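Support request, please re-run this one:
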Amino acid sequence: MRERQFLESSIDGVRALEQGIADNVELIAMGEEEGDPSIVEEAETAIRAIKADVDKRSIEMLLSGEADAFDTYVEVHSGAGGTESQDWASMLLRMYMRWAERAGMKVELLEQHSGEEAGIKSATLLFKGRNAYGWMKTESGVHRLVRISPFDSQAKRHTSFASVWVYPVVDDTINIVINESDCRIDTYRSSGAGGQHVNTTDSAVRITHIPTGIAVACQQGRSQHQNRAIAWDMLRARLYEAELQKREEAANAEAASKTDIGWGHQIRSYVLQPYQMVKDLRTGVQSTAPQDVLDGKIDEFMEAALAHRVHGGETAGGDID
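Re-run finished. Output below.
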């Protein structure tokens, strides 16, 4: 049903674009014939707007995967390196929240473990919006930051790592069977910035799926019962995403043999010193405005990564110091 609706919508959209082009071409001809440059200018502006719409639709056509239209969970984890990496993880968390704001999506913070001095050890977000998983799935992997550390009194350059994991919210029509005997459930006290949603009781819940080692946690709810229900939904989503990953790897086995860029590996470098550069190591896309990127302007990287995944392109390779 979802695929049929998508196809019908796409066909209607193409027809509307074709009609719009035809109408404005006629207007240009009429304006030239009558010697009215204002008509020509108005029609040319309309055609440019149609072109922008076509460009947007061409990107959205890449979002036709089985789960691309779903809402999505996004986990951010700091790497080794203590405070420096924990601060970097919080910067990534902010970047994705700013991107969601720009994209008109709603974001919920489901779980967060704060760092000892600054930043976060880990956090889980829920993104709700059109094609949330389709866009965010391109961000799964390791992100590297190079900068002069604000936590180093000698102002030395540091390299920090943080990992991002993205998995879709499972549609109600998808049946994921989980044996409770295969799971371990732990409860603990919520942590974070505090406030009315953080309890002083052991209300937070972590569920570990023993056969796969997959673990999820939630502390957003006001009660252990609510957090437990959300955690089960998250676990179903993680197991579903793992199955999607297996299918994708099987379908792209030949392309995968040509690249060493895979799930959980380094995908992007952000350099703030000694020069300013953000480079995607899968596609070669670069930006010389890292602050804009960290403020959520990552669409260019997402679009290129989507095209790279669909077309099975070889890795751009090359690293930056």
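Helices lie at 2-34, 37-60, 83-102, 132-136, 224-251, 253-256, 290-294, 299-311. The longest helix spans residues 2-34.
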